[in-house]
Amino acid sequence: MNISYTDTGSGKPIVLLHGYLETKEVWADFAALLAQTNRVLCIDIPGHGESSNYAEAHTMESIAELLDTLFIELNLNNFVIVGHSMGGYVALAYAEMYCNKISGLVLLHSSVYADTHEKAENRLREISLIQEGKKELIFKSNLPRMFADSNVVKYGEVIGNITSKALTHSENGICALLRGMIERSDKQQFIEQFSKPLLFIFGMKDNYIAVEAANKMGNINKNARVIWLENSGHMGFVEEKEITAEAIVGFMK
């Protein structure tokens, strides 16, 4: 199967994993900042972008296994893995399965918890809409909410670009990832015991992760660093790009 990625810059490697409905292109401007000091890999998670579909459900663990195959081929070790939203779920699975291969973990607007019943039901409704040929309705409701309400107009062009890329995703690929997210296990205990450097980055205006829930996550591991972005929703690497890049580069050091 095919896994599509970009590989830029030099230095200590960073792997960037995008979120639901996104592609590796969403990182372009942000990755360019990181590539000034580091090697940066941006990967299309299988089911999205130019990477292949391979099953009815793309579990986070199966994606992690596929990514490890790529990393072996690239002779990639001792890297920091950064996951945005759904990409954070994959990063958590990878960190649990291959902890000896990473030097640190960054969860960017992501959650360590399994889906609640309500969240799982929402994902099942999205699968039904996709199977009815109505995936545009999902994009229309989800993608603007990824930004702080006060930033939606400002980043209208970015939302349009993400939407255009999302339209290229196959229905089977989207559904496979939705099923994989529903099936994922809770990682709270794993994070509590995680001994390598750990960074959480949250947005104060996130429509998907409430401040209270984010604070709770940030306190699970006593050694974790927590960065709050005051003017960001769920897309801090776009909404406060320089601050987020500075936080990650500082974490790398």
List its salient traits.
253 residues; alpha/beta; 7-stranded mixed beta sheet; 43% helix; single chain; 11 helices; Rossmann fold
Would you mind describing this structure in some detail?
- Helix 2 (60-73) crosses helix 3 and helix 4 (117-131) packs across helix 5 (135-142).
- By secondary structure, this protein is α/β, with parallel strands linked by helices.
- It is globular, with a radius of gyration of 17 Å.
- It has a 7-stranded mixed sheet with strand order 1-3-2-4-5-6-7, with helices on both faces.
- The model has no long low-confidence stretch (mean pLDDT 97).
- It is built from 11 helices and 7 strands.
CATH superfamily: Alpha/Beta hydrolase fold, catalytic domain
| Uncertain residue ranges | none
Number of helices: 11
From the spread of the alpha carbons, the general shape counts as globular
Which class in CATH terms? Alpha Beta
What's the main sheet like? 7 strands, mixed
Helix vs. strand class = alpha/beta
CATH architecture: 3-Layer(aba) Sandwich
Strand order of the largest sheet: 1-3-2-4-5-6-7
Q: What is the alpha-carbon Rg in Å?
A: 17 Å
Note the run of SSEs as H and E.
Answer: EEHEHEHEHHHHHEHEHH
Strand segment tally: 7
How many structural domains does the protein architecture include? 1
Round the mean pLDDT to the nearest integer and report it: 97
Helix content: 40-55%
Spatial gap, N to C terminus = 35 Å
- Kindly identify the CATH topology: Rossmann fold
